[in-house]
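hey so i finally got around to running the thing on that chain from the lab meeting. sorry it took forever, my laptop kept dying and i had to restart like 3 times. anyway pasting the input first so we r on the same page abt which one it is
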Amino acid sequence: MTHPWRAIEGGITAPAGFQAAGITAGLKASGRSDLALLLAPAGAVCGGSFTTNRVRAACVDLCAERLEASGGKAQAVLINSGQANACTGDLGLIDSHRATQAVADQLGLSQDEVLICSTGVIGVPIPMDTLLAGVAPLVSALGSSPQAAAAAADAILTTDLLDKQVALEAELGGRTVRIGGMAKGSGMIHPDMATMLGFFSCDAVVPADVWQAMVRRAVQRSFNSITVDGDTSTNDTVLAYAAGEPLATEHHNALEQGLTTAMQQLARAIARDGEGATLLLEVQVEGAADEAAAQAIARTVCGSSLVKTAVHGRDPNWGRIVAAAGRAGVPMDPDAVALWLGEHQLMAAGQPLAFDRAAASAYMRERAASTYLLDDTVVIRLVVGQGPGTATAWGCDLSDQYVRINADYTT
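ok and heres what got predicted. didnt touch it at all, straight out
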């Protein structure tokens, strides 16, 4: 089927009726913008996906509990950056309640209709006097323009080098449907749901349970298919809002395709923006027993420190790739393995092939010399058997800059 979705401008506010804002409230010592708000139209449904880390920030539990209690109904989300507000005891939950109540009061909503996400240093509570003083200016800044979307996307960043936005549209059921999104993430990226924050908007509505299932599957094929450093955060959250005219059932598959595409674009951008990274790594796996097995192999290869450092050194050391695949914990046939690095085939039927090592190294070096436009991708293709399972995962190389960034993170 022809892909009906096309890229447009506008980010999170591209869908009709959605508003966003981002301001500098003073939460960060750096003086960068640090407080964002997304507001959906009345009657919106919201699907969520949250970290499985047992050490969770109070805002994660608050979001999950409110969505469950409401049957997937929510209209706004407040996002602060600078403080994760995780591992802060009872104060974390108290402050999350105070913040959402302040936003609800300003917007004329019930507190239960407002969600909250935080990102920053673990163990650091939010300076609440500063945040609360910023709520009224934040609400006043709400708008539907691309500039409002960009301001919100910038305000949620921490160590990211660039903001991450997406907007798509398609003709479904005789009308234009749009999906928008924004995300942040650069370090602590190894999803088990999604190690980052991601927010999405859509101006077509489907039943809340159907939307939640779409969100879950799209997350699995996007944010749960990226890795930077193997660390899963305490605050990981994806929230996707849908509001507007109902969409007929026959268009649900196309809507999910668009949601998955939007999430994958932002997931790739997060992997490419990995702390200290110089290129994007894409691992395509074919021939596994099923999609889950293929994804496990792809993620394991992407997450291997030995593979990541070899790619950074532009070393076509294929032994590291197959060794990583073999420890993924799923069945595979070593005698069926075929392996490509870009256009260079390195293995066939489980046996090594003669290849031009200098050319394979140059392939990676050329990608690292590219730009942030996602044309800097090193592609590894791995066939592990004759099964129907396929999956793709994304990561990045591992450089000495990753150590430098994280060694000095709180100093």
